[in-house]
Specification:
The chain has about 280 residues and is of the alpha/beta class. It has eleven helices and eight strands. An eight-stranded mixed sheet has the order 3-2-1-4-5-6-7-8, with helices on both faces. β7, α6 and β8 form a beta-alpha-beta unit. α1 crosses α2 and α7 crosses α9. It is globular. The termini are far apart. About 45% of the residues are buried.
Length: about 280
């Protein structure tokens, strides 16, 4: 199987397209917004240039990656793909609509994977004609640099489909760990609470730098919870918290005022240059 697709040309979708292309797959990136596709192509060129400069990955594979990727606004390009990864915004209604469309456009043998960070796979699978072909691939951001993927097996996900997904993940140079289909799966069910508590600690006069330094120095985390939130995107964190609050009915997943204030001010983290930390 060498034909894959990514739906959504945001930061995550572009990063996953890079991973697939450098692994030797042909990739179709589909987005309804033509401007997003233009920005994504430039972001990919910049990422590949940086990877070559820093020696991250095989030079030949990085150089050939752009020629393996097709960019389009036409969903019809998905018809002949064998493996599709959905990377649209973390809003249940949006993802459900996309999966309904994928169910109509893609062939009955196509594997449909969602890169959702919290939305249960069962609901997405239910709007397709072949729920046994649906699963989750929770790839953390930035996709080219993270080495492990949560592979979410839905209640109806077929064994062969799971094996195929694990093989794709392995070919991208990542370790797939299978987890059950629960809201937030494992990573975000735990991580989001950590981020909420870290934000709450700021009200006590603790700085973001102090919180992250303690997690990095005492626990050996590569990045602390607030720097991790900045990397994910604070707008994405709020979306994920909203999903967990709705699915679990647990008020611990309500976004703290300090977090919502940053997002309201347009400070989304690394992608805007400012979040809990300043990256300008």
């Amino acid at each position: 199987m060498r034909s894959t697709a990514v739906v959504g040309a945001g930061t995550m979708g572009t990063g996953i397209a890079q991973c697939l292309a450098t692994a030797g797959y042909r990739v179709v990136v589909v987005d309804t917004d033509a401007d997003s596709l233009v920005r994504a192509q430039q972001a990919l060129r910049d990422a590949l240039r940086l990877a070559l400069l820093l020696g991250r990955g095989d030079r030949a594979a990085l150089t050939r990656a752009p020629e393996r990727i097709e960019w389009t606004t036409d969903n019809a390009a998905l018809r002949d793909t064998e493996f599709v990864i959905e990377c649209v915004t973390e809003v249940p209604a949006v993802k459900t609509s996309v999966f309904a469309e994928l169910g109509r456009v893609c062939g009955p043998a196509t594997v449909l994977a969602s890169c959702t960070s919290a939305i249960p796979i069962a609901g997405l699978a239910a709007v397709t004609a072949h729920p046994e072909r649906v699963l989750g691939l929770h790839i953390m951001n930035p996709a080219p640099l993270t080495g492990t993927v949560e592979v979410v097996r839905g209640a109806q996900t077929g064994a062969e489909v799971l094996d195929t997904a694990l093989a794709v993940v392995a070919e991208m140079g990542k370790n797939g760990i299978v987890v059950p289909d629960r809201p937030g799966f494992v990573i975000n069910r735990v991580l989001m609470l950590s981020i909420v508590e870290a934000v709450t600690a700021l009200a006590d006069g603790v700085t973001a730098a102090t919180v992250d330094a303690l997690f990095e120095g005492c626990l050996g985390h590569t990045t602390g919870p607030l720097r991790t939130a900045d990397l994910i995107g604070l707008d994405n964190v709020i979306d994920t918290l909203a999903v967990l609050r709705a699915e679990l009915g647990d008020d611990r997943y309500i976004a703290p005022p300090a977090l919502t204030a940053l997002v309201a001010a347009g400070r989304y983290g690394r992608k805007t240059g400012q979040g809990f930390h300043d990256y300008r």
